[in-house]
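Suppose you are handed a protein chain with no further information: no name, no annotation, nothing but its sequence. What can you learn? This example shows the usual starting point.
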Amino acid sequence: MANVVKTIRNFNAGRDPERLAMKYEKLRSSPFVFLRGTCHLFHDRLPSDALFAKAPVAWLCGDAHLENFGSYKGDNRLVYFDINDFDESALAPVTWELVRFLTSILVAGDSLRATRDDANALCRVFLDGYAGALALGKARWVERDTASGLIHDLLATLKARTRPELLDKRTERKKNGRRRILRDGEHALPADKAGQERAKKLVAAFAETQDNPGFFKVLDVARRIAGTGSLGVERYVILVEGKGSPDGNYLLDLKQAPASSLVPHLAKIRQPAWPSNAHRVVTLQRRMQAVSMAFLHPIVDGKSSYVLRGLQPSEDRVSLDVRRTGLDHVRGTIAEMGQLMAWAHLRSSGRQGSAIADALVDFGASVKSWRRDLLDAAHQCAAQVEEDWEAYSEAYDAGAMVPAKAKP
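A reasonable first move is to predict its three-dimensional structure. Written in structure tokens, the prediction is:
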């Protein structure tokens, strides 16, 4: 228990205590949420088997799990479903990505409402989808006209969502008719003066590179509450003028980019010398996604760097619940997630040290030689996550996980 608690505390040192307290509370809720919020611990615990050392090296999102896939509007104005989180991205063996996703299926059994046999079947479906797409060697994508099942249903519902509706949910109108970000404790909290000024300065620096700087005139700034693993990292939601107040305003997300927690375990794999961690995240997101989000941009401020992107009404996830939608529908979605991961690896192949597409194709074609070992490793990792979560929960319940500055 002491090792788990110390590791989590050390990793989160220096984060905003108010949002860190929210993170610690979330981690207590289930093994799946714990897995999502402790990517660093997962890779600390990764087995040192040959499976994780000799597999082809590729660009990974680094934090693959069931909820790091979702919908968004690309910079070409079309809506896609794809991997959507690249904070932990790094160059590493592809099996690191696969085992983390498989582990997420196994520890999400309760939220999936899936039996142990169902979860095992879904793992096999995911690997078949990944290996099959990799063996074909052609990167494709999922958007409204090519989606099926639950993903198609999700993308179809997004047609009715509008930016004014998103603004109505996240902002309030002042007496002068202009909008102000809601500080509701669910999506946002007040930002101190220094934080507001820093966010304004960073957005202004980005605006200078754009054709219409007035679009990015900052109207309001608040601290953003979002995610699990990143809670407590410096992050803001920013209201900008956009196409005109009040309903033409836009919301932006500005998030500090820490180092990937995979890198300390990758001493034998040379990582590129990125200008900043934000450049790493943005470059690899652009490289691995078929089409990237609007306004996606790295911003550097001294030793810190930030990722800027737009907040959209089209952002959402598929609800995976075997009892509500049926195992067949969930199976189809998991298979598509496997394909999306393979396409991301193919799309970024042969770049800055990544294996060429032919090596990945060969790996996909050899599924029989590595599938059983990978499934066994995922079960081992899932058991470790459950054990670590129980130790964490004991410490949390005993009051040992209160951020120092948040204590009364």
